[in-house]
């Protein structure tokens, strides 16, 4: 069955941001007395704070107390300190344009908040191209839970077998798989091919997919 739509992850997929997100967590935890190494945080990128915080400090959560304060500080760091370090993944805008020209229905599914997502879309230079957006604000739980993917499916008003997701982490593959959506993975998020082995296909970054577009599953539209 040919795909008719694409669910787009943003962090790590269209924006090279995973290292900055990991460092923001390191600094946010340190501000509250928790010394957690970057190497421990980095493999968790692609999850939202509802998963990251209790995985790193089991007695905390992002809904109350110190955990909530850490999550809030992490967001401030991304918006005010690390935003200048973020850059779009190669080929992001051109790939989105190509998919639109191919007649594919595009919808964003991000673990970021809408406030963060607005900035990320500008960094990827696709803010004028993408209007159907879902974020952590639309979900009870972030990836690898399926909530955000379900919200994207509802927004697109399309069945899961008609869409494919572009993502960069094993959590994208896991969350999409729970509702029957296949994934095209990008290595630019920093995960290995082994970790992304559940994907339909793996490309270096959006520009790599664009170069190979005619031989990809997207060209069957």
From TrEMBL:
Residues spanning the signal sequence: none
Keyword Repeat: no
Keywords for this protein: Hydrolase
E.C. number: 3.-.-.-
One GO cellular component term noted in the UniProt record for this chain: cytosol
GO biological process, one term: DNA repair
GO molecular function ontology, one term from the record: phosphoglycolate phosphatase activity
Descriptive protein name: HAD family hydrolase
Species of provenance: Halotia branconii CENA392
Lineage of producing organism: Bacteria, Bacillati, Cyanobacteriota, Cyanophyceae, Nostocales
